[in-house]
Structure formats: C-alpha cells, structure tokens
Amino acid sequence: MRAGPSQEEIRRQNLGALLRYVHVRGPTSRAALTAHLGLNRSTIGALTADLTAAGLVSEGLPQDQSGRAGRPSLVVRPEAEVYVFALVIEVDRLVAARIGLGGAVLDRREARRPRGVRDPADVVAPLADFVREMQRAASPSARYVGSGAAVSAMVRAEDGLVRLGPQFGWIDEPLGEALAKVLSDEVQGGDRAVPVRNNADLSALAEHVRGVAVDTDNIVYVTGDAGIGGGIIAGGRLVSGHGGYGGEVGHMVVNPNGKPCNCGSRGCWETEIGEYALLHAAGRDADSGTGRAAVETLVDAAGRGDAQAQAAIRQVGDWLGFGVANLVNIFNPEMVIFGGNLREVYIAAAAQVRSRLNRNGLPACREHVRLRTPALGDDAALLGAAELAFGPLLADPLEAAADNP
Amino acid sequence: MSATPLLELRRLNKSFGPVQVLRDVDFAAYPGEVTALIGDNGAGKSTLVKCIGGIYPIDSGDYLFEGNPVTVHGPRDAAAHGVEIVYQDLALCDNLDIVQNMFLGRERKHGIVLDETSMEQLAAETLAGLSVRTVKSVRQLVSSLSGGQRQTVAIAKAVLWNSKLVVLDEPTAALGVAQTAQVLELVRRLADAGLGVVIISHNMNDVFAVADRIAAMYLGRMAAQVRASDVTHQQVVELITAGRSGDLGIRDGDAAAAPVRTVKEL
C-alpha cells in the first residue's frame, strides 16, 4: 500500500490543472489562477514558468490596464501555436480542422458527403487531403500534439474500430487504424494512435467544456441527422460504458410494434423521431430531399400553416418528449440538449415535448431539468474531437510536450 | 431557484374610467428565469406590462423590486430600478445606425462632443456578449436589418443599461421560423446569464421553448402562475380560455366578479 501521491504526481496534477484552466477559460491572470485553483502564489509562479519553458503558455501584461492601481497581475495565455487535428465523419458531411490550445479553430475544411453506403477509403481520402492542405498552410513554428476523430457510429474506444455504422454500411471497420495512417503519412511526428469516439458523445463533452452546459455536471445530449445519437455526462464524466458504446439512446425501444430500424431491431426511438420518420409523417417522399435542409423546409412550411407538416412535427415532438421523459427518469439530468436537426424540431414542438415530459417524467427527476439548444451549434463534435486530442497533453503537460518538440 | 423575486406585484388594480382592466393581480418574476405572460386578447397583459414599465400609474397594490416596496411614477423610475421594456414596435429609428439607436437619448459625451468610440465599442461588446453574430457592422443603418436582427438590436439596447429585468412584448410575432429560433435562443441566454426576463407571447410553442414559469391571465385577473415543468399544453390552453384547469386557476367561489366560462360555452 502506498502512503499517498508522490511529489512528482502532485506537480503533474497541478500542471495539468493549470493548463486545462487556461485552455478552457481563456487567458487568466496569475491572481485569478491562485484563487480558482486553490494554490499559493509561488506555486502558480513555478508551474507557469515550467509550462512557459515547455512552450505551452505565454505570459504578458493585461491588455486593459485602465483604472487599476498597483502592479498588474501577469496574464497567462494558452499558446495557440500548439495544435491538434480534429476530424468529424457524419452522415452528410466530413469536417477537418486545425485547432489550437485554447480551443480556437485555426483552419477548417468541410465537404458534403452523399448519403448511402460507402467504402471507408472514400471517407478517409478527402480527410487526408484536408490534413495535408492545412498542414502545409500552418506556420513552421506551430507544434502538432495529436489528433482526435468523431464519427456517427458505434466505436470501440480501445482502438477506434467501428463496430456498427448503419448510415455508412460499416461493420467492424478499422477506422482508427486508417486515420492513424493518414496522420503518420501527412504530419511529421504524427505516428501514433488517433482516438475515435461517437460524435454525440464528443458533442456532449464539448458543450460541457465550453458550451451551454459549462458547470453543469449531469447532462443528456441528443442529436439527430439520419439517425439519433446520444451523449450522456453523469457526475461530470462521460458515460461511455464498458467498450465505449454507451449512450445509444436512438436505439432504445419505445414502440415494440413500430417500424423496423436499420439496426435490425423494431420500434427504436430513431424510427419515431429520426429525420426519415419526420419527413415520412409529413408525406414528403425521398425525392423532395433529405438532410438538414429538408427538415428546415418542413419546419418552415409548418410555420406558414401547412397542416400536414404541423401534424408531423407535433407527432414527432410527442415522441421526442416520450424518450426524453425516459432519459430524465433514468439519469436525472440538470439539462437536456437538442442538437443537429432536433434543435429545429424541439423549438417547433416545444409544447409537445414539454407536455409529454411533464406527463411521463417523475416529478422529482424532472423538476429542475432545463431543456436547451446547443451553444456551439454544429461545431460541437469538432470541438469535442479536439478535446479528445488534447487529452494526453492536459493529463501530463511536460511529458506530452517533450514527445512533440 | 432563488427565493426572492426580482419583481413582485401584489393585488394590483388598474381602471380606465369605469372599466376595471386589472383586478387584484399578483405577479412575480425571478432572476435567471424566463416568465411567460400569456392570455387572450384583452386579458390585460399589455396593461400589466405598462404598469411594470411605469407608463400607467397603478390605482392600488404593491410594487416590490428585489423585495423592497418601490414607487414607480414613470418610465425613468422603472429604468432606474433596472427594468427595461422592449415593445412590439421596437421603437427603433430606421434612419439611425445600430450604435445611435442603442444609445438614443442616453448618449455618452466626451466634453461637449459625443464619445463615438466608446459607444461603438460598448455596443459591439454587448452584441458579442449575447453571441449575436448575424449583425455585420454596428454602423449599419437599422433600416437595412431583417426583422430578427432588429429584434436583436432592441433586446441588446435593453440589456446595455445594466438592466436586471427585461420585458419583451411578443418578440417573435412578426418573424420567420429561423429567426424565431434565434430570438428564442437569445431570450434563453439572457436568463441563463442571470437576468430576469418576462416574455409576452401568443405562441404556445415559444412559451414552452423558453419559459421557466408561466403566468396566465384571464379577463383582467391572474388565473395562475405555474412552473413550466408542472403543466401540460392542454392545461395552459384551458387557463387562457377558461381561467381554470382542474385544481389550477380561478376558483368558482370568487368568480362572481368575473364570470368563468367553460371551454364548452366558448
């Protein structure tokens, strides 16, 4: 049995806490860091000196010095030259971005992706092009520290193996391996594993770290495109489950006699509130378009008085509230966030969603739940992938920085 | 949530000549919450808002701000307490730009000249603080803005003055779907930032999308003030149209003054 953490471990912990603080909250004065981290002034000074030496933060005078007496406290800023690549693979789009420490998107590329079954190589190749272009455009002094990827599929956390991606027709595709190869080909010093997670999980994480759910430790994030994804944060931690597949709220069965789902089951939540269900209920056939635009057009038509569109939105809103009530009863979240096209559906059908939640949710579980739309919009998964990529650096700043000179 | 209401009205009465428009109205708005004020046409919503804003003097009743009784004789008194009202017509001047509108009548001066730089900076900061990204330049004329952008400017103008309570009269009435969503998200952000917000709306969806509390008026009386997490769409519609729903609303016993009609009668 050990007596306690060693001095070295405590230092590592403190370095990580300080770097994480300025990464998440932005430039902060030493005085404020002292107050927020509960460390004394000389410790903050020493930690800052170490991080500055490692090129992870810089210090300077505050920009606005007016009206303050005395010597101003130095402001610690995250060094945005330190960057990661964040990759997003969704049903309708591929996104890649170069994101600096502190969360600023330094460069970004996006491509529309046609729906339907595709070879993984068709997804990886454009991402490789994006990474190459952005790497070329980066300044020579910029430092790469890792990558992370989000995909709307069920992913094994351990190695990024996509176990099931119904929207792509993937079963047991080694996506993590393929992306790791891209990074090691395109980026000097990029030969390491690329962590891959579910996009809704990473969206939940991003909204928790720098979005609408900051300081909120119990949240349920549901997002919709062709399918329905979910990310759950309980007690400040992402509920990933044993293998990384947790939070698949789209496949909770709500209607045993319902429509068949592309996961092989029947009556999944997705078959009642997904985009196809909404468009079908409104009598829109496949020819009248799919995707976000089709949902927006439908909501707009309902706003202008299209009765069939209104009825479809109410019906889907009721089902949305039904599932949310179940989730609220199970997780007792402080906040439920509606992302993707569920943002439009929620705003258009809030009365149905709320009413159903109030009817079916347990009063003690639902009394403080706040229903919200995302603050980060469609960039949540991208920023979440960046957080994933920054993970090792924030856990052990000096060690990780030494690996990436 | 917090126990002391930001604004509390007790047994408020207001008559115009022989017509009693508000009858013993109780109303409360809390910091960090959106309170939706709803009711049929002629239920007294606008009169109540004008009493809050100091446009109409009240006949009797208590006006408490942050728990202290105050007297409000005019809009300036209300503004001094931190109450700002955004009326439906927005009261923006088309021929002026965003900065000029936001500081209209309360311009900052540097000696005898206007301090344009600091006003421009503050206007831009306020819009950025509300995460408003749709407005390109704060020197744009208001006439060039869309309906949603105008609403945003009017709301930003209300927030600029360190206000504590912002009252919005039908902010989404004339907007399209996409702009309605943006304005509703803005309303939500105001409350999440700690302000008290009162929103008048006829749209049940808008009410449920943003409100923490719902205050339903019926024929000049407050039928019920309930939490949005406790009621259904159906109940709220009944409160508006009949003044009561199950255990909620105006009781039969004291309904003599204003006859309660059932949904069937209507």
From TrEMBL, chain A:
What organism is the protein native to? Virgisporangium aliadipatigenens
SUPFAM superfamilies recorded: Actin-like ATPase domain, Winged helix' DNA-binding domain
| InterPro entries for this protein | ATPase_NBD, ROK, WH-like_DNA-bd_sf, WH_DNA-bd_sf
What is this protein called in UniProt?
Sugar kinase
**Which keywords label this protein?**
Kinase, Transferase
GO molecular function: any one?
A: kinase activity
* Protein family membership: Belongs to the ROK (NagC/XylR) family.
Q: Does the keyword Kinase apply?
A: yes
Pfam families (alphabetical)? ROK (PF00480)
UniProtKB/TrEMBL annotation, chain B:
Q: Which InterPro entries match?
A: AAA+_ATPase, ABC_carbohydrate_import_ATPase, ABC_transporter-like_ATP-bd, P-loop_NTPase
Q: Key word ATP-binding present in the record?
A: yes
Q: Name one GO molecular function term.
A: ATP binding
For this UniProt record, give its keywords in alphabetical order, as a comma-separated list.
Answer: ATP-binding, Nucleotide-binding
One of its Pfam families is ABC_tran
Identify the residues that the record assigns to the ABC transporter domain, covering every copy. Answer: 7-244
Q: Tell me what this protein is called.
A: Sugar ABC transporter ATP-binding protein
- Native species of this protein? Virgisporangium aliadipatigenens
